[in-house]
Amino acid sequence: MELVLNLCVNIRVENNPISARDYKLVHAGRRSRLRQAQFRFKSRNTDIGTTTSTTSTVSRYSVSSKKEQLWISELEDARLEEEDNDGYELDSGFLSLSEKPDRNMALLDDYEIEELDYSDPNHHSGYVALVGKPNVGKSTLSNQMIGQKLSIVTDKPQTTRHRILGICSAPEYQMILYDTPGVIEKQMHKLDSMMMKNVRSAAISANCVLVLVDACKVPEKIDEVLEEGIGNLQDKPPTLLVLNKKDLIKPGEIAKKIEWYEKFTDVDEVIPVSAKYGHGVDDVKDWILSKLPTGPAYYPKDIVSEHPERFFVAEIVREKIFMQYRNEVPYACQVNVVNYKNRENAKDFIQVEVVVERNSQKIILIGKQGKALKLLATAARLDIEDFLQKKVYLEVEVKVKENWRQDERLLKNYGYGGQIRAL
Ligand SMILES: Nc1nc2c(ncn2[C@@H]2O[C@H](COP(=O)(O)OP(=O)(O)OP(=O)(O)O)[C@@H](O)[C@H]2O)c(=O)[nH]1
Which residues approach ligand 1 with their CB closer than 6 A? Predict the structure, then answer.
C-alpha cells in the first residue's frame, strides 16, 4: 500500500510542472497521510473517557552506530536551526489548523479520490465546532462521536490546547469535528489569547456549532461563549446546546434545565446527553446531519484525523502530566516530540521534551532520583504503544524555557499560531 501511494506522488511530480514549494507541501501532506494510514480502522482498546496507568520499566534508546549518532545530531542541529529561525513558514512541513480545507483534491492521490464517493446526491458533509467553557466535556463528546480517543480527557479544566480535528464518517455522511480549547474569560498568558483565536477560527468556518454546558451547574447565559467562539452573533451558524453530564442529575432536573436554556438562550435546539456513557449522542449526530449541506466527503472514510501521529504522542504525554502532577505544574508544561524515527526492524524511537517555565517545576517533574519522570514516561509509553499499536522506545527530557507561555515566537513554533508540524 505504501509503495503504491509513494508511486502516485512520484508520478504526479514527473507529470505536473509544479514548483518546489508545491511539491514540498504535497509531499508533506502525503507523508503525513502515510503515517496516518497506519491508524486507519484500527480497533484500539483505549477507553473513551478514562485511561489506564500501569507501571513497568522505561525503555531507553541506545545509539548503536556512529552513522546513527551522526544522523541524530544532524536532526538535532536542524531542529535548533529551525528554533532560531523567526519564520516558521509552511515550507518546513506545517499543517494549517486555522484554514478550513476546501474540497480540494490537490493533496489527494488517485486512490483516495476513488475512495471518496461522488455519486450519492444525498451524501452530507461539513464542519462542526464544539465550543464551551473548560471541563464541560467537549473532548469526551468528540471522542465518543468518533468512536476513538483522539482528544485527551482529564478532570482538570483547560487541558485541550489545540484545535483537534476528528473525522466521524458513515456511508451517508462525514462530520469533521473541531474540538476546541475551553473558552476562558480571564486570558492570562499570550498562550490563552492564541488558543482563543483558534477557537474563533474553528467556529467561524463551521457549518454548525455545538455549545456544551455542564448539566450539574446552575444554568447561565451562553452569549459570552458564543461571542468568544463565533464573534459576530448575527451571522452565527445553526447552534445546538448540548446539556452534558445528564447522568449526574435527576430526570426532573434535566427537564427544568432544558426549559431554561430554551427560554433564555438563542439556540436552535437543546439536547441532553451523557457524553461519557454515550447517551443521547445519536440524537446529536441526527441534529448535525440535518444541518450539514449535501456534498462529497472531504477525507477518505477510514481516516479519523488529519493530525500526524507525533501530535497525538505529545498529547498523550501531556495527559499523563495532567494526571500525575498537581496545581500549576501541568499548565506550565509544553510537550514537543523532537525526534520520531520509524524503524523497520526495531521499536520506533520517540524523543520527547517537556518544556517548563522554571527550574523549580523541572525539579518537581523529575522527582527524587528521577522517579517521578520515570513513572510519567512509563505511563505515557504504555498509552502511546496502545495508540500506535506497536512497541516504542520513549525518551523524555525536561527543559526550562522561561516564560514560554508569553513568548509568541515559541508559541507559534509549538503550534499555537494555528499550524502544527505535518511530520
Ligand atoms: N459524569 C460525567 N462526566 C463527564 C461527562 N462528560 C465528560 N465528563 C468528565 O468531565 C471531565 C472533563 O471532560 P473533558 O472532555 O476533558 O472536558 P473539556 O470540555 O474538553 O475540557 P477542556 O479541555 O477544559 O476544554 C472529565 O473528567 C470527563 O470524564 C459525562 O457525560 N458524564
Answer: 49, 132, 134-140, 153-155, 157-160, 181-182, 244-245, 247-248, 274-276
Domain presence at residue 139: yes
Q: Are residues 144 and 278 in the same domain?
A: yes
Q: What DSSP element (H or E) covers 356?
A: strand 348-356
CA distance 30 to 27: 5
Alpha-carbon distances, residue 178 vs 15, 23, 130 (angstroms): 36, 28, 6
Query: 118 with 296: CB under 8 angstroms?
Result: yes
155 CA from centroid of ligand 1 (Å): 7
Whether this model's pTM surpasses 0.80 = no
Q: Are residues 315 and 214 in the same domain?
A: no
Atom of ligand 1 nearest to the CA of 50: 29
* pLDDT tens-digit readout, 133-181: 888 998 899 889 988 766 656 555 555 565 667 888 898 999 988 877 6
- ipTM, two decimals, is 0.98
For residue 160, report the distance from its CA to the centre of ligand 1, in Å: 11
Distance CA 174, CA 120 (A): 13
Same domain, 286 and 321: no
How far is Cα 44 from Cα 389, in angstroms, rounded to an integer? 8
What is the C-alpha to C-alpha distance for residues 62 and 59, in angstroms, rounded to an integer?
10
